[in-house]
Design goal:
alpha/beta; Rossmann fold; four-stranded mixed β-sheet; 9 helices; 12% strand; Mycothiol_biosynthesis_MshB; LmbE-like_dom_sf; zinc; metal-binding
Length: 286
């Protein structure tokens, strides 16, 4: 089960992993916490959907999310509390954080209880979400982390907790390679960053627990990225990196292990190559 804050987060952070396991026949459940109402719009003809205009972007992004899930082969998607229950809070410190339905202001116990209901139904062996900084500090990502971890505690009280909880991340070595690639480029997303340590995300390689090789599903991930057209323009650095590094960048996704026992791995740091590594798949809940 993957718990994400907005439509497109699932694709950017974990799309190849989702496609990998869906293709392998695993039940992949995606829980999205908001409809992304406060997102930017990169399609000029749709500018009127913005929150400050018609405020219809969230509904449009739901359709983008459906298309992305189809590209990834994910058939079980839910909105936390039902579609429209929680609203995109916008970036940290904005007035949108105070909206009555902003996810950032959601009651933790109530939201965790809603996620617990899904856990009771699908009994995930593995759950994936963000770290306690929401990967890069977005309030909805942070709240998704809090809600997921609290729901897991409640599930443990009922004896149905997932065996493992992972947090999505990017290894420092991958960030350093990206910075080196874009150095001097006119389309450099790291232009104002002097050192990898200055980035608000990235994890030392020796703290990574798992590397999932979804390179066979890189095309599916890119199709899902294109489905989120309002948020990710064709000129995005994502496509630039994909064009230069191909599936090796797009399809390789990384995780730290927050709950559970690390299974067998390989390579210098013993990274797992399967999120189910070490689990008794016959004995654990399906």
């Amino acid at each position: 089960m993957f718990v994400h804050a907005h439509p497109d987060d699932e694709t950017i952070a974990t799309g190849a992993t989702m496609a990998h396991y869906a293709a392998a026949g695993a039940l992949v459940t995606l829980v999205t916490c908001t409809a992304g109402e406060e997102g930017e719009i990169h399609v000029p003809s749709l500018a009127g959907l913005a929150a400050a205009e018609a405020d219809q972007l969230g509904g449009y992004r739901v359709s983008e999310l459906h298309a992305a899930c189809a590209a990834l082969g994910v058939t079980d998607h839910r909105f936390l509390g039902g579609a429209g229950r929680y609203r995109d809070s916008g970036m940290m410190g904005l007035d949108t954080n105070k909206h009555p339905r902003a996810f950032w202001g959601a009651d933790l116990e109530a939201a965790a209880g809603q996620l617990l209901e899904i856990i009771r139904e699908v009994r995930p062996q593995v759950v994936v979400t963000y770290d306690d900084n929401g990967f890069y500090g977005h309030p909805d990502h942070i709240q998704a982390h809090r809600v997921t971890m609290r729901a897991a505690e409640l599930a443990a009280d009922e004896g149905i907790a997932p065996a493992k909880i992972y947090w999505s991340t990017i290894p420092r070595s991958v960030m350093e390679a990206g910075m080196a690639h874009f150095a001097g480029s006119s389309d450099n997303p790291f232009a104002e960053i002097e050192h990898v340590d200055d980035l608000p995300f990235g994890t030392p390689d020796d703290e990574i627990a798992a590397e999932i090789d979804g390179t066979d599903h890189a095309d599916a991930k890119l199709a899902a990225v294109r489905a989120h057209a309002t948020q990710i323009p064709p000129t995005s650095w994502l496509f630039s990196i994909a064009g230069n590094f191909g599936g090796e960048f797009v399809g390789m996704e990384h995780y730290t292990l927050a709950v559970g026992r690390k299974g067998p791995g390989s390579g210098k740091y013993g990274w797992e190559t399967d999120l189910f590594a070490g689990l008794d798949l016959d004995g654990d809940a399906a």
